[in-house]
Amino acid sequence: MNGYHHLTSAQLAALAAGATDMAALAELGESRVSRHLLLLLPLIRGWVGDEGERDTAVSVLEAVQEADPQVFTWLIGDPMVGAWLSRTSRERTRTGDFLELGNFAAAAALRAGRDCRVTGWAREGRLVIPTMGTAVLGDDASAPVRIDVSGGAVTLIGSSGVGTTLVEGRNWWPLRQLRARWDGLERAVRIEDASPFRGGYHAAPSDRLDDDEAAVWQSRFAKAWSLIGRHLPDRATEIALGLRAVVPLIDSGDGSSRSATARESVGALGASRPTSAEDFAVTIVHEFAHSKLSGVIDIVPLYRPGGTELHRAPWKKDKRPTSGLLQGVFAFQQVADAWRCLAAEPALAEVARAQFTDLRDQVRVGYRSLAASRELTPAGAEFVAVLGAAVDRLFDEPAPRAR
Predict the structure, then answer these.
(1) Domain range holding 205?
(2) Which residue from 45, 51, 67, 366 puts its CA 20 to 30 A from 186's CA?
(3) pLDDT (0 to 100) of residue 254
């Protein structure tokens, strides 16, 4: 178990059962912040490039952390920041990845209302300021760029020495937000369609959405959030706390929806264009379940690393390692339960009952393989036993009829 962060036995059992435990979810978020900080330190110590540029960016971050620790903590915990830190710590050779520290410092200064002058990195003519947006430069070069933040305005100075102030609609793409409200519970989730670190899924991320496409996502998100709020209120509460970004994925063109969660960007989900509001609602529940379990595993090892077992999973053509099967059973148990609840929506009753019936059968098959695994740790065995009780509850009663 992680020596700094801790989940009690009751919290671990609640998470395994699919219950909403806000204290446990807060601990998962704090653990993610610690993980990112641990990745940031070796980046600073193993710096590749001009150490003066590093020290300037670090000074900005230290000033923000001291003056406004909530801003710093929120920013360092962001999924795209985590993806950047994970990639840089893994590769350790790309000067541009290290200079993204300047982009990160500029974001911290902007959010804290401070001025700064740092050196960042533009990739193929675009400079991304994490959680805020993308500057579109006049060429396709990848190069260092000085970032001046003053009074909330941003000016970029490239190798020519000429400054360019960022203006929305001309050379600045602010990150769009998917916004929705249900019964006083409001949710705003970023559309991450420009960050160079938004990949890591089984499908490639799409380029920036045009206005019409963004409007489609907004409409379906608002309807999906309404479904979640009406029929899955506990899920709505936890998703409002933990989901921060959606990464649009390239559409395969076969009419199917794709979605995924990347381990290095927990708190974000990747998805192709949702085919319907109910599809989007279930996708959000599905991928947020993966995020929760990834957070749990960061604190409490549930299976032994390097295992060689392979298991049949009804939702996959190939056999899955214990780690993958655990993720699948945990997430699909919550998806099946979501369809059970959505069957109370008259317009969805028939399709929801069919989805629920099929999925609970698949989850039971997958669970039997998981429970037989010899690679579970003692904590993992306890977690899986509680998860099994949640799977059994799917069979306690037939799918509900429409009201």
Answers:
(1) 177-393
(2) 67
(3) 67
Locate 242 and state its tokens. 């933990």
Q: Can you give the pLDDT at residue 139?
A: 83
- Average pLDDT along the chain: 93
Residue 323 has a CB neighbour count (10 Å cut-off) of: 17
Structural domain total, the chain? 2
- Say whether both 154 and 181 belong to one domain: no
Among 129, 151, 174, identify where a domain stops. 174
Residues 293 and 331 grouped into a single domain? yes
**Rounded to an integer, what distance in angstroms lies between the CA atom of residue 101 and that of residue 55?**
10
β-sheet bridge partners, residue 211: none
Q: Are 162 and 269 in a shared domain?
A: no
Please write the tens of the pLDDT for every residue from 97-132: 899 999 999 999 999 999 999 999 999 999 999 999
Q: Are residues 163 and 294 in the same domain?
A: no
Q: Is-contact 229 182, C-beta < 8 A? A: yes
Distances (CA, A) of 204 to 65, 251, 316, 359: 34, 9, 20, 27
Residues 316, 219 within the same domain: yes
Q: Considering the entire predicted model, what is its pTM?
A: 0.93
CA atoms within 13 A on the CB side of 155: 11
Q: What is the pLDDT of residues 144-179, one digit of tens each?
A: 999 999 999 999 998 888 899 999 999 999 999 999
pLDDT, residue 403, reads: 46
27 part of a folded domain:
no
Domain match, 219 and 136 both: no
* Whole-angstrom distance, CA of residue 340 vs CA of residue 400: 7
